Amino acid sequence: xxxxxxxxxxxxxxxxxxxxxxxxxxxxxxxxxxxxxxxxxxxxxxxxxxxxxxxxxxxxxxxxxxxxxxxxxxxxxxxxxxxxxx
Length: 86
Prior knowledge:
The protein contains 2 helices and 4 strands, in the order βαββαβ.
């Protein structure tokens, strides 16, 4: 598993998280503001895109409300390594 961090403006938060969800190899997304985790979004592995979009709608709405309150935050992404293990 690998981890990446992105620092973005609050106005870009929902768009960036939506893009990450559509990548499909994401295990978990954490939104961090001023060193504290304010939201953690676990993602189902192998969930169909349509089902995932329906389940994520309320989470993205909450994320949008949070994004309106902050100027900058960090997104920490846990990605699933797709290399087969031997």
